[in-house]
Amino acid sequence: MKLIAPEYYTKFHCIADKCRHSCCVGWEIAIDPDKLVYYRSIEGEFGARLQKGIAEADDAAQFILDDEERCPFLNRTGLCDMITALGEDALCQICRDHPRFRNFYADRTEIGLGLCCEAAGELILSQQVLYALRDLFITI
């Protein structure tokens, strides 16, 4: 299976507390089943906080946003308490992946970065155009 990505893809990194529009505010943060099992295993004070911050219904789980629609682990300095307490590997899949995306096709998978992220947008829009305008069109 071919994996296709823009040349700049691996240069992306989250700017965390420097971001003006955190992805940890205002959107539902689903928890994948494997991480939910892991989160249930965390003990101590942080484990209790973790359990309190998760809502479960049927076969789905998500973080409970506060009154300002912030993830319960996004602290006031703009950093993730889950990362500082447990490390980046503790993040659920959506938090690890965002703003990365994948499109699956029969012969390939295409990956990229979404413009919904300030850092990704800056990275994408700062790329030099490598082709002339005439190369965008074909003759029919």
Report how far apart the termini are.
31 Å
**Number of DSSP strand runs:** 5
Widest sheet: strand order? 1-5-4
Radius of gyration, CA atoms, in whole angstroms: 19 Å
Counted by DSSP, the helix tally is 5
Order of helices and strands: EHHEEHHEEH
The multimeric state of the shown protein is single chain
Query: Uncertain segments of ≥5 residues (pLDDT<50)?
Result: none
Helix proportion:
25-40%
Structural class: alpha+beta
> Can you tell me the overall shape?
globular
| Major sheet summary line | 3 strands, mixed
Characterization of the model:
There is one protein chain. With 140 residues, the chain is an alpha+beta fold. It contains 5 helices and 5 strands; from the N terminus they run βααββααββα. The protein has helices spanning 33-41, 44-52, 81-86, 93-97, 118-125; strands spanning 2-4, 54-57, 60-63, 100-104, 108-113. The strands form 2 sheets. It has a 3-stranded mixed beta sheet. The chain has a two-stranded antiparallel ribbon with strand order 2-3. A hairpin with a 3-residue loop joins strand 4 and strand 5 (108-113). The longest helix has 9 residues, at 33-41. It starts with a strand and ends in a 15-residue tail after the last helix. 13% of the residues are buried. The mean pLDDT is 90.
